[in-house]
């Protein structure tokens, strides 16, 4: 199924100010339609509960698949919609072991969920 096959369904979607809600709107627009948003919710669990109630469709992240309530069918898209999640922190001249531990914990959790974690991004250099 292609994303465009969902054009005529009512959508349950995060608001346009959220990264996810904005990204879905862009993906739909790039495929030639604007989603008909019937309900705006910010939590994926709430969206999935509404879908179980027959109120619309949405996209579900890999992590969201662990939240599926009974009665929700997941249909993979022909062209998966991918996103990158980044962690930003203030650069310091002294080591910050707590930041390194946090980043490693996020990478470990992603790997345990079967999500790809790429190499660390190069540090940002202001004005560079």
How would you summarize this macromolecular structure in one to three sentences?
It contains three helices and two strands.
Report on the structure:
The chain has about 130 residues and is mainly alpha-helical. The protein is built from three helices and two strands. Strands 1-2 form a two-stranded parallel sheet. The model has no long low-confidence stretch (mean pLDDT about 85).
Describe the secondary-structure layout.
Elements: E1 10-13, H1 19-30, E2 36-40, H2 44-52, H3 97-112
Parallel strand pairs: 1-2
List keywords for this structure.
mainly alpha; two-stranded parallel sheet; elongated
Choose one word for the global shape.
elongated
Structure class: mainly alpha
Order of helices and strands: EHEHH
Query: Helix fraction?
Result: 25-40%
The largest β sheet comes out as: 2 strands, parallel
How much of the residues is beta strand, in percent?
5-15%
* Number of E-type strands: 2
| Radius of gyration, taken over Cα atoms and rounded to an integer in Å | 18 Å
Question: What value does the average pLDDT take?
Answer: 86
End-to-end span in angstroms? Answer: 43 Å
The largest sheet has its strands arranged as: 1-2
Low-pLDDT segments: none
What's the helix count?
3
